Amino acid sequence: MDLLERDGPLQTLGDALREAGAGRGVVVLVSGEAGIGKSALVERFTRTRCDGARVLWGACDALFRPRPLGPLHDIAEQAGAGLRALLGDGTARPALLAGLLDELKRGGRPTVMVVEDAHWADEATLDLVKFVGRRIERVPALVIVTYRDDELGPRTPLRTVLGDLAGARAVRRLPIPALSAGAVRTLAGDRDVDAAALHAQTGGNPFFVTEVLAADGSGIPASVRDAVVARAARLSRSGYAVLEAAAVLGARAESWLLGELVVSEAAAADECVAVGMLVARGEALAFRHELARQAILEQIPPARALALHRLALRALAAAPAGALDPARLSYHAEAAADEEAVLRLAPEGARRAAKAGAHRAAKALYARALRFAHALAPCGQASLLEAYAEECAAVDDLDDAIAAHRRARELWRQDGDLQAAGGNLAVMATCLVRAGRNAEADEICGRAVEGLELLPASRELALAYRTRAHLRMLDRDTAEAIAWGEKAIAMAQQFRDADTLAAATNTVGTAMLLGGDARGRAMLEESLALAREAGLDGLVALAYTNLGSAYGERHDFRDADRYLGEGIAYASERDLDHALLYMQAWQALTHLAQGRWTQAGELGGAVVRRPSASAISRIAALIALGRLRARRGDPGAGAALDEALALALPTGTLQRVGPVRAARAEAAWLAGDRERARGEAEAAWELAVGHRHPWLTGELAYWRWRAGERVAPPTWTARVYAREIAGDWRKAAAEWERRGCPYERARALAGGDRPAQLTALGLFDTLGGRPAAEALRRLLREEGMHQIPRGPRKVNREHPFGLTTREIEILRALDRGLRNAEIGERLHISPKTVDHHVSAVLAKLEVGSRGAAARLAREHGLLDGAEDAPQK
Predict the structure, then answer these.
(1) Which residues are CB-contacts of 621 (< 8 A; sequence separation ≥ 6)?
(2) Where would I find the beta strands (DSSP E) of 128-213?
(3) At residue 4, does pLDDT exceed 70?
(4) In the CATH hierarchy, which fold is given to the domain comprising 805-859?
């Protein structure tokens, strides 16, 4: 059937291909609900509008778990031998992705690369999409990524990638709309079908419509499955056998492999293509819709399915060595009930997946092996469990990781390997502290150290020492952290354990730097060098993270900026998102401290909107957002700081609890609630003093003093706070200025003489610190001053997020559910300009969707009194 109402999307793709042909690469994200016609659109485009371009096509699998880099394997079969070689020899992910970029540049003509069904993509494939999207501008290629937007939950990995690419200039979004009633009527043609009813019942979904029409219009099926089965039933026995085999093989059925499963019926594949159940993809066949494949798969009798999976396993195992895919083989092995094959293939597939960065796929493959591990010796089961736990931890499934570690420890003890059991406890402690269960982590780590110290020295004991040092550093117990870390370093050197050596050196350096010992920088720089030399990218990023956050905690923001900037670039280049998000959260805090408030809000909001952000990243970002909103007088400060406190309290650590309490004390004071400000500061006072933390002790003492208490801070308190509390506002203001903190400088000047107060007022106004400026103006009036400088005029005071008049109009249109074209028509601007305005509104409101923006507008009354969008 003809594609109806798709000229616009085809034009968009054609324009993108012309840009690629001119050397400016483009990524087009084609989205829509299942069956909306994404594949049909891209197939039509590649068949009719790609003359002179090379087309490479890959699809993501919808198996029990997607195979790592599935689309890249498909593409490699159509591309040059170089890419196939990189895949075949297990090349590390960075080199593999670089090889793909080289392949896209090859041939002297533009390349169109299709990645279909990205909602089923494994993590390595999502990394591929992100990697290419960030670098496509200098590549003569058009990359088309299709995905189902109706299956993206708030924590779906693809949503994170879409968020990462939201600001990329070379990325275009192409949502595919449903068909109109007129289009459905055209498709129905002369059939005896009520086209209006068909449109109403199917919602204009082309897949639903065409499947119903292919069933000769015999009523609307109760489900897509019914329509698929009705259509497949018209096939001959041989054709249906081919369809079953193709369903078993997955999203892509290679012709040679299909022939191995249905030797005598293979010729009937053309029949499946003719009726539209299968489509040709190079040397392979695929279902036009995955829903159709799943429907057929469910209809296959168990005995028949078992036989087909065994045939597939045998055929794939006999393929050339370079073409073997352990993940795919293990899928068929499990379905074929071949325990030995699963235990051999699934762990190998998991190791390859982990190396490629596909940790969710690796986790699933280890889980597959564990389902068949009952016959293994205890040590074999324990090793599998630990590997599984490592992958769980990599994707933040910490409860599963901890449970797997507990079971593995029991098995190690059953096997009599007490050193392995102790090492397992040390790793489990790290998972526990990441889950916010710090007290339990301390207890577990203590048991590991005590047990391993009764045995000969070992790598496991070095690991336990390093874990104990890390826990003490996180709680800011500097002396203990250094002592345990030095023991870990000595033992790691004895056993030439590069990983533990780099990590322990990092921990000791961080503890020293936080404790005020400048030699900590050299230790951290050494850990950075050790990690680089050993190729430990995660520990390189950790060194940057700890250098940046430690200098930030010491209020040395210029040094913090340097390391955070280098670290963010390093982590971004290697897609180390855990370290990247934590450093970005800390950079939001350094921006805030140095008066770069707009950047602080944008960066903090971006971290909070990431569903994959860890608790520690969220805490830092929420502190930045809460303080920013409180200082500006914007709504949402309390909500941000409430969430931060809820995340911080279970850790029980000064590192998390102290900054949250200080931020909450400031917000309460700015709101005029002195009693609450004092309570927040006192809540963390003993914790800060007990750990002799000069900066947190100083700030908490400052807020107690501002709330009306008489405070005598300890002698080791940060000097700038001690001076301010003692009334030496001049030196305090000078110190804040030296550190590059304009808001804190203004606070100090506000307590000085009249010229200092007027300078403070100007600083508050320039920064946008409305509550502090208003409080200072009240004070000046009370002191009898009549000619008080007016602050900047607020055009839209009822819109504290700083929305312009045009953005208010856009927000009202979003509240009505209007699309960009409709908004553009009402406001006499282009849909592209509307899109820019919508992006600005979402950024200012710090939300991730149009619906969330509308909800926030209603919650805070942002549209009260706003004029309606002008009509034509």
Answers:
(1) 584, 585, 588, 603, 604, 605, 607, 608, 613
(2) 141-148, 171-175
(3) yes
(4) Arc Repressor Mutant, subunit A (1.10.10)
